[in-house]
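Now for one record.
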Amino acid sequence: MANEIIIDAQGAVVGRLASFAAKKALQGNKIIVVNAEKARIIGRKSVILDDYIKKRALGKGVQKGPHFPYRSDMILRRMIRGMLPWKRTTGREKFREIKCFISIPVEYQNKMKDAVKFEIKNALNYLTLEELSKLIRYNG
């Protein structure tokens, strides 16, 4: 059985979190990310929002793609997928072992003392995944 690594995404920079999670998944660990909505994307809000609106526009239509998610936990999971070798079977298999959650599920509340926490970067310009998902019209 592989090790289970719980990552608390509260205040973490999304790119650093995604690369860490992808690397640990490729090493054979099962990854659980909690508080996904509180992860931060560093940069100007207008630039980040324009980028994601363009990505969402690419997936319009039934048979076209890529399809980008609205929910903050799925946005983070998609970012982790970008760090994996998706065109190889190992990348796809390891992606199935990654789970992202909004807030902390009941079954992981007792295990939070062992969770990996990232250093909170004090940046003036950032956008949390929760704000991003609300701005791209997710009503959940």
